[in-house]
Amino acid sequence: MASAPPTVQDDLNPTPTAGYNPGQKKTLEEYAALDAEDESLRRWKESLGISTSAGAGALDPNAPKLVIHSLSLVSDSIASGGITLQLDQPGDLERASKTPLQIPEGIEYAVVIRFTVGREVLSGLKYLQVVRRAGVPVDRMEEMIGSYPPRAEPYEKRFAPSEAPSGLLARSGSNSVRTRILDDDGVVYADFSWSFKLVKA
């Protein structure tokens, strides 16, 4: 008997890493106090923005854990250098889902996200993306973002380059995209939809 086709939920589940144990979560204060007498470790933690001087009193306890500011498709083949979806203002997500991006066919591009970590260290963040055409999955992307401590200045993560499809069939119709960002415990911090249409270069 044939197995059931994968669902959107299945597509957006990260691939498990054999033997990987994410370990116990720690607060920013616990990270700061960890091996406090080790000078080299202290300098390493401060290079990541983790220090006793930047404790909880310096952070907004009501800040979101993660804010995605933008998602960009960066390419030398695009005159402006890339196409950006703003995602951090009211109405941005609704516009992203209803207004397809126009992407030249056949170009090489890289997905770049800008994000801010709010009030605690986020570890093992992953980026998942599923592209569907007429409801059928045609592409899936899974990339490691990494682990980040809180800071006011946004982080930027650029993923490995991809190549856009080309040809008459690729240009007919729009593609819907579902993007999800989650950590190594499976906690979802962002989940949104957008779309794109391939056009002649």
From TrEMBL:
<dbReference type="Pfam" id="PF02115">
    <property type="entry name" value="Rho_GDI"/>
</dbReference>
<dbReference type="InterPro" id="IPR014756">
    <property type="entry name" value="Ig_E-set"/>
</dbReference>
<keyword id="KW-0963">Cytoplasm</keyword>
<protein>
    <submittedName>
        <fullName>Rho GDP dissociation inhibitor</fullName>
    </submittedName>
</protein>
<dbReference type="GO" id="GO:0005829">
    <property type="term" value="C:cytosol"/>
</dbReference>
<dbReference type="GO" id="GO:0005094">
    <property type="term" value="F:Rho GDP-dissociation inhibitor activity"/>
</dbReference>
<dbReference type="GO" id="GO:0007266">
    <property type="term" value="P:Rho protein signal transduction"/>
</dbReference>
<keyword id="KW-0343">GTPase activation</keyword>
<dbReference type="InterPro" id="IPR024792">
    <property type="entry name" value="RhoGDI_dom_sf"/>
</dbReference>
<comment type="similarity">
    <text>Belongs to the Rho GDI family.</text>
</comment>
<dbReference type="GO" id="GO:0005096">
    <property type="term" value="F:GTPase activator activity"/>
</dbReference>
<feature type="region of interest" description="Disordered">
    <location>
        <begin position="1"/>
        <end position="25"/>
    </location>
</feature>
<dbReference type="GO" id="GO:0016020">
    <property type="term" value="C:membrane"/>
</dbReference>
<dbReference type="InterPro" id="IPR000406">
    <property type="entry name" value="Rho_GDI"/>
</dbReference>
